[in-house]
Amino acid sequence: SARRILLLGEGNFSFAAALCEAAAAARFVATCYEGEEEVSGRALAARNIRRLRERGAEVLFSVDCRKLKDYFLPSDRVFSCVYFNFPHCGRKAGVVKNRELLAQFFSSCAEVLAENGEVHVALCSGQGGTPADRPRREWHNSWQIVAVAAEARFILSDVRPFNAESIHGYKCTGYRSQDKSFSVEGALNHVFTRSTPLLHLKPMVCQMELGSRRVSFQVPQMLVDKINRGFLELNSEHPVRTVKEKLTAVLSQTFPIQSIDCSLSLLHQGHIGGVCHSNVFWIIPKSEQNASTEQMANGLANAVLFSHIDFCKDADENGCMKVQEGNLISEQYFLRPSLLRYVQTLTERATFLPGTLYVLSGPVFRKCPVSPHSLPVFHEVVFVGAVDKAMESSFIQVLVDTIRSSIHLLHQTGCKLNVTLQEATSFERTELNDFAVSESQITKIQHSICMETDALGCFEKGCCVGTVGTACGGAKSSGLVVVFASLNLDLLAMLVCGIADWRMLWTSDERFLSQFLGEELRLFKSFSLYPPSYVHDVSFWIPEREQFDEVAFHTIARQVSRETVISIQLIDSFQHSETARKSLCYRLTYQSCDKALSCQEAAEMQLLFRKEIQRYLHVTLR
Q1: Tens of pLDDT, residues 53-72
Q2: Are strands 267-269 and 333-335 parallel, antiparallel or unpaired?
Q3: What are the FDX-ACB domain coordinates in residue numbering (predicted)?
Q4: Which residue, 142, 341, 354, 494, has most beta carbons within 10 Å?
């Protein structure tokens, strides 16, 4: 009874009358664009108006869908649902004018729709321009309804067939602004909801204990919304935590399990070993004298202060960072790229027991190229145990078999996908291996754990979700060997729950977590369908005698776009015959998986991206 439903553009009010009878408890406001005298002169319309009024509905005339707030008092401007069937400018108006009509309608709708309300727009076959249309028109010849709605912060959350035959008494009229019917075969009802706003991230300072010191550091801009999200905390119902708990429960049936509950530092100090220096987020010391007034007020004056360097190219042959003047930094820190760096520390503890499987988990960070399953931050779980060297092979085999069984069990409790596992016995430089501990600490990666599914296009060729191997050093007895299994929980959750885009795991939209209440793994249903994408090219000359840092190029794109760049492709490379200067041309595709992204916003991001690559990579734009 609390639902108020607004119907716009009613020609003969037959749809409004049918809906009013079907949902008698709701309160209806039915409107049309024509004046009352003109509409009342049509017999069918007059009968339906009487039916509506007899049921308590309000009927309004001469209502312009582009100025909705003008027709209602402020207290009456909240509608649970707005229907607009087959909008059209009239006569022979083309696609451009009808796009403009929709844009103004959605903008007006935003002023009268409840926060959790819906906007239903029915369009004839092919008009919407989405993959749901059969047949689908070329984009430029459609109404581009999803892109138009994004300008008013709406996302397409559902598409349903518009079955006119199932609506009792409904008769569609209005062909070329006349009282004539038109074909609605293949018509679709597009359901839009409000989008959460694009994030405008503010600088963030994080505090923690590092050894005997309390330190504070500026969080890298692209990670501000991903630090301290608490996905693995006890009260979390995030699928990443559910995957970890179910994996651990299965392993506990075979091995004694002990979780390491102590807080693991986000920062590492020292050399990065086998990891490329451009793939880590560097944190460098910042003197207390340079602390801001705000930092002093927040009690950071007594802490060791650090700042973040986004894109620094200078490093020595060991991967040690240098300041711009070329001097080596005495204290080198970086955000942890893997939890495997804690294996040696763990095994050196007096409480470390051979035969027990210890569990470490938490988020890890790395710079990486833009791709569907290259994650700049993800949650890693590491299982660590020590056994006699004579038992190494059998222990590893049991561990691999148990992990395989637990993943198959996850598959059964989640979505019914065609998932397979593959073990690789040779060392493979996978995405996860790139961020393992240095080669002096890892002796052998014996298995790469891979999964495949034909349900998600980005995983058709298989995806490495973890590694199993042995680590040297740290064991209290020379007769012991340390075995570890490292798994990417985010990729596992995506595969099990059918989540095609890693960014969805980090959304702040409640419609994501609401699908996983009760710590159950279910097939994810996206609340943002067919999001619009925008393509922009950039070409530039790279600096002479400098190697182009493509990882930094991708990282800048991630940062300025707030993770809305989904693809970066090198489409052309040219070297000048006389000067030998080299030019590159890249194509960037912008698309948001959970929020409305407008054409104008993408264009502004591209302009900022062009400025930032000039500033940090010293390229010359063409």
Answers
A1: 999 999 999 999 999 999 99
A2: antiparallel
A3: 529-622
A4: 494
Q: Which CATH architecture has domain 534-621?
A: 2-Layer Sandwich (3.30)
Question: Where is 362: in which H helix or E strand?
Answer: strand 357-365
Predicted pLDDT of residue 325: 38
* Cα(402)–Cα(408) distance, integer angstroms: 10
Q: What is the DSSP letter of 290?
A: G
Query: Which of 193, 45, 36, 185 minimizes the C-alpha distance to 110?
Result: 193
571, 585 contact by CB (below 8 A)? yes
Q: How far apart are CA 153 and CA 510, in angstroms?
A: 16
pLDDT at 342: 86
Q: What is the pLDDT of residue 458?
A: 52
Q: Sketch the domain layout of the chain as residue ranges.
A: 4-194, 232-260+340-514, 534-621
What tokens appear for 272 in the block? Answer: 């990065």
CATH superfamily, domain at 4-194: Vaccinia Virus protein VP39 (3.40.50.150)
Class of domain 232-260+340-514 (CATH, top level): alpha beta
Work out the angle at residue 395's Cα, subtended by the Cα atoms of residues 258 and 451, and round it to the nearest 5 degrees: 85
Phi, psi of 320 (to 5 degrees): -80, 135
For 351-362, how does the pLDDT look when each residue is reduced to its tens digit (9 = 90+)?
Answer: 888 889 999 999
The pLDDT value given to residue 332: 74
